[in-house]
Amino acid sequence: MRLLAFAATNSRRSINRQLVELAAYQFKRDVRTDAQIEFLDLNDFEIPIYSIDRENESGLPPQAHAFFEKIGAADALLISFAEHNGFVTAAWKNLFDWMSRIDTKLWQGKPMVILAATPGPRAGAGVLQSQELLAPHFGGSVRGSAGIGRWKEAYDPEKAALIRIEDQVALSSALAALAPEHAQGTAPQ
């Protein structure tokens, strides 16, 4: 199984990067030992802000095509969304907008687990809710989600582990939903 994992942020020190790495390694250890994990960094796919004028003048950036192809080559997706003002980061929204010009169904029918880590108590509730609602429209099948709030209290960086039992259970449950026996069919095409 090829698992594509990324934090939907361009922050190099993002807590969402920490969460998606923790989750990917836990998935390989506990759910699918045969998983081949590929991590992507949004900084490697930086492109100009989307506009129809720019698209008409220059076409679609190669970085958008490259990210789209990475999604297509994966069997499943693991994404941790940083929450900016209740929604996705500008960096992710921009890349998403460009990829949607390749194909509106940019998630390409892939099963996915969505995550969020936040310093505050809401645990990314806004961004998780919006992405779970939007995913089917864009060809995604959200199989599980987990939000981890109050990150500094939730994560032990020395052990690279979640501290609170309820967070451990929520993450394990979300990751288990990507196992074949939990398959719920594919996303609408």
Question: Could you name the key traits of this structure?
Answer:
single chain, 189 residues, alpha/beta, Rossmann fold, 5-stranded parallel beta sheet, two-stranded antiparallel sheet, 7 helices, 7 strands, 19% strand, disordered C terminus
Describe the structure.
The protein has 189 residues and is an alpha/beta fold. The strands form two sheets. A five-stranded parallel sheet has the order 2-1-3-4-5, with helices on both faces. Strands 6-7 form a two-stranded antiparallel ribbon. Strand 3, helix 4 and strand 4 form a beta-alpha-beta unit.
Short description:
The protein is built from 7 helices and 7 strands, in the order E-H-E-H-H-E-H-E-H-E-H-E-E-H. The protein has helices at 15-30, 52-58, 62-73, 90-102, 125-134, 151-154, 165-176, and strands at 2-7, 36-40, 76-80, 111-117, 141-148, 155-156, 161-162.
Biggest sheet strand order reads 2-1-3-4-5
| Domains (count) | 1
How large a portion of the residues is in β-strands, by DSSP E? 15-25%
Mean of the pLDDT scores? Answer: 94
Architecture blueprint of SSEs:
Blueprint: E1 2-7, H1 15-30, E2 36-40, H2 52-58, H3 62-73, E3 76-80, H4 90-102, E4 111-117, H5 125-134, E5 141-148, H6 151-154, E6 155-156, E7 161-162, H7 165-176
Parallel strand pairs: 1-2, 1-3, 3-4, 4-5
Antiparallel strand pairs: 6-7
Helix pairs in contact: 1-7, 3-4
